[in-house]
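User: I'll paste a sequence; please echo it back and then give the predicted structure.

Assistant: Echoing your sequence first, then the prediction.
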Amino acid sequence: MKKIVEMTYEESYAELEVVVEKLENEKSALDESMALFERGQELSKRCALLLEEAELKIEQLSEEELINE
């Protein structure tokens, strides 16, 4: 399993979808469900972080463009 901090947004989101599907559709042992839930939480945080970074970069680029006009 790839480390979450090394994952792209797309990889994180895809795995998060798999985790959610497993939690919704499979009857797993409590320990396994908790591990999936924790992994899902970390994946969700990674997605949010990467989106925030992308938004900040867009804002910076937009500001630079306005300054250069």
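The chain has one domain: 4-68. DSSP finds two helices and no strands in the chain.
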